[in-house]
Amino acid sequence: MALIHAAVLEHWANTNVARDTLGELLRKLIHAHINLSEIRSIRILAHESNQLSGWDGTLECQSSVPWLPSGTSVWELGTGSNARQKIRNDFSERREKELPSGWDREKTTYVAVTLRKLDDISLLINELKADSPWLDVRIVDAQTLEEWIEISPTVETWLQDQGIGPPSTVRTLSTHWRHWSEKTHPPVSTKLILAGRDSVAADLRRNLDSPGAPINIQADSPGEAVAFVYSVVESSDDILFREHFLARSIVINQGGDTSRFRDVAKPQNIILCPPATSEALALARSGHTVVNALGNRSPAQRIDIRIARPLRSEFADALRAMGMSEEAAGVEARACGGSPSIWRVWNLLKVGDPGDEIPDWAKLRSL
Question: What is the 3-state secondary structure (H, E, C) of the chain?
Answer without folding.
Answer: CCCCCHHHHHHHHCCHHHHHHHHHHHHHHHHHHCCHHHEEEEEECCHHHHHCCCCCEEEEECCCCCCCCCEEEEEEEECCCCHHHHHHHHHHHCCCCCCCCCCCHHHEEEEEEECCCCCCHHHHHHHHHCCCCCCEEEEECHHHHHHHHHCCHHHHHHHHHCCCCCCCCCEEHHHHHHHHHCCCCCCCCHHHHHCCCHHHHHHHHHHHHCCCCCEEEECCCHHHHHHHHHHHHHCCCCHHHHHHHHHCEEEECCHHHHHHHCCCCCCCEEEECCCHHHHHHHHHHCCCEEEEEECCCCCCCCCCEECCCCCHHHHHHHHHHCCCCHHHHHHHHHHCCCCHHHHHHHHHHHHCCCCCCCCHHHHHHHC
